[in-house]
From TrEMBL:
GO terms for molecular function: cadmium ion sensor activity; DNA binding; DNA-binding transcription factor activity; lead ion binding. This is HTH-type transcriptional regulator CmtR. Residues 4-100 form the HTH arsR-type domain. It holds the Pfam family HTH_5. The keyword Metal-binding applies. It comes from Streptomyces liliifuscus. InterPro entries: ArsR-like_HTH, HTH_ArsR_DNA-bd_dom, HTH_Metal-responsive_Reg, WH-like_DNA-bd_sf, WH_DNA-bd_sf. Metal-responsive transcriptional repressor for the cmt operon. Binding of cadmium or lead causes the repressor to dissociate from the DNA.
Length: 111
């Protein structure tokens, strides 16, 4: 029974991370290569403060890690399998129905 609860918690953490478009973009960017926050903020076109909040969320979910490099911090996926999981998940969803979008959570009560 513990395994099921643990599996559910892990999937819920991944779901929370993917629930925000900026966090999705961050995960996809880090899938390509580790990066420093200033570079990520510039690449995503968001403020460093906003980026910091999203990186904190991803760290709390256990999906990214912060590595000190001198006076700077570099971020990367916590495990390379996360990059593969993102690819597989995206491919599976597109393969099922590429033309679907998730209904608005407020009007449909999902997502």
């Amino acid at each position: 029974m513990l395994t099921i609860a643990s599996d559910i918690e892990v999937l819920a953490r991944f779901g929370r991370a993917l629930a925000d478009p900026i966090r999705c973009r961050l995960l996809l960017a880090l899938r390509e290569a580790p990066a420093h926050p200033s570079d990520l903020a510039d690449a995503l076109g968001i403020s460093r403060t906003r980026l910091s909040n999203h990186l904190a969320c991803l760290r709390d979910c256990g999906l990214v890690i912060a590595i000190p490099v001198g006076r700077r911090t570099r971020y990367e996926l916590a495990d390379e399998r996360l990059g593969h999981a993102l690819d597989h998940l995206r491919n599976a969803v597109v393969a099922v129905e590429a033309d679907k979008t998730c209904p608005d959570a407020e009007t449909r009560g999902c997502c």
